[in-house]
């Protein structure tokens, strides 16, 4: 029997499981899924968990059940490519015939002193829970600093100010406008929404250090009750420590078939993979579907696909609280209630089809 080992039950891992099961997995192949949690987490909704507007239960989805899946719950500590084994804290190593690495990302602190120690995060469900506790315990008119005004920082700030309008929220960003990856029209729309809701946007900021309850912007100390870091990501430490070729962002360089150039049994999916687009759930799912095609060909001893069409992203949507939103759909900018309804609908469909 061959063993397909999937590290991480994120968006890529889940899409692979649903594509292979119940009918496409060959009889001589089993699957081992390794994840730190006994459920799939909707990472795109961590901001709402941290803000306290949804419960933990709403962002958990059960993994598929099948007698050909073995679930191993624990923390991956290393990958032994030479011996085809994965090391897991407190457990026996797990061997593999084919390996899919989907371990996701971590916060990137850009060597800012104290940032890793004195800030909160929404990169994992566990860290989001801790952030929720810290934010939920704040008294009236407390000050919350959010460092980084990309999609995560904007959604967190908007959800938090809507649920706790008594808080003083400061949103720090390095650029002239927030949401630098979006068209200026959308950035301005979101900025105006923040102004109308009392959120202070600190543009052209440069966070030089963080201490307990103190943020230094261009060297000037700013007192804060809670500091949340959403200013960039990097691949999992496990991937960063692998002795393989990587791009300038530390992501693994792959062949068109999504495996290592010198090892066609090791695939990388999602945030750790070097791909033309910025990491996203859509990208991980599209990549996972192509990896499944490669594996099915490989297991059948058929020639592998020489290339794949570019993964097409349908768009990106962001929320501004529960009633407003913004986004790009088919390169068209949309704002307001329609954008928020679209995002809610997509989330419902995902949970319905995967739950």
From TrEMBL:
Biological process according to GO: aerobic electron transport chain
InterPro entries for this protein: FAD/NAD-bd_sf, FAD/NAD-binding_dom, NADH-Q_oxidoreductase
Cofactors, names only: FAD
UniProt keywords, alphabetically: FAD, Flavoprotein, Oxidoreductase
Record domain FAD/NAD(P)-binding: where: 3-282
Keyword Phosphoprotein in annotation: no
Domain of life: Bacteria
Gene Ontology molecular-function annotations: NAD(P)H dehydrogenase (quinone) activity
Keyword Acetylation on entry: no
Family to which the UniProt record says this protein belongs: Belongs to the NADH dehydrogenase family.
Protein name according to UniProt: NAD(P)/FAD-dependent oxidoreductase
């Amino acid at each position: 029997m061959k063993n397909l080992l999937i590290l991480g039950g994120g968006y890529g891992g889940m899409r692979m499981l649903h594509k292979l099961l119940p009918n496409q997995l060959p009889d001589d192949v089993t699957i081992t899924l390794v994840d730190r949690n006994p459920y799939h987490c909707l990472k795109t909704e961590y901001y709402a968990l941290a803000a306290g507007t949804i419960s933990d239960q709403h962002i958990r989805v059960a993994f598929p059940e099948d007698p050909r899946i073995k679930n191993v719950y624990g923390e991956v500590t290393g990958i032994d490519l030479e011996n085809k084994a994965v090391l897991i804290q407190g457990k026996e190593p797990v061997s593999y015939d084919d390996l899919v690495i989907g371990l996701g990302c971590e916060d990137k602190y850009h060597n800012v002193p104290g940032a890793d120690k004195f800030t909160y995060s929404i990169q994992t469900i566990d860290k989001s829970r801790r952030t929720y506790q810290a934010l939920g315990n704040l008294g009236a008119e407390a000050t919350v600093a959010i460092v980084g005004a990309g999609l995560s920082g904007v959604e967190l700030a908007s959800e938090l100010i809507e649920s706790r309008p008594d808080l003083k929220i400061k949103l720090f960003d390095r650029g002239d406008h927030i949401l630098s990856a979006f068209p200026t029209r959308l950035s301005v729309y979101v900025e105006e929404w923040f102004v109308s809701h009392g959120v202070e946007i600190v543009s052209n900021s440069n966070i030089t250090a963080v201490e307990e309850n103190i943020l230094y912007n261009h060297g000037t100390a700013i007192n804060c009750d809670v500091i949340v870091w959403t200013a960039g990501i990097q691949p999992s430490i496990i991937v960063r420590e692998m002795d393989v070729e990587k791009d300038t962002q530390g992501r693994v360089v792959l062949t068109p078939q999504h495996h290592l150039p010198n090892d066609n049994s090791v695939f990388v999916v999602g945030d750790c993979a070097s791909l033309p687009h910025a990491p996203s759930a859509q990208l991980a799912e599209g990549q996972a579907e192509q990896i499944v095609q490669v594996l099915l060909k490989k297991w059948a001893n058929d020639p592998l696909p020489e290339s794949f069409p570019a993964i097409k992203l349908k768009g990106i949507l962001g929320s501004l609280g529960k009633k407003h939103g913004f986004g790009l759909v088919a390169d068209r900018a949309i704002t307001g209630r329609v954008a928020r309804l679209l995002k809610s609908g997509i989330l419902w469909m995902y949970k319905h089809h995967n739950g």
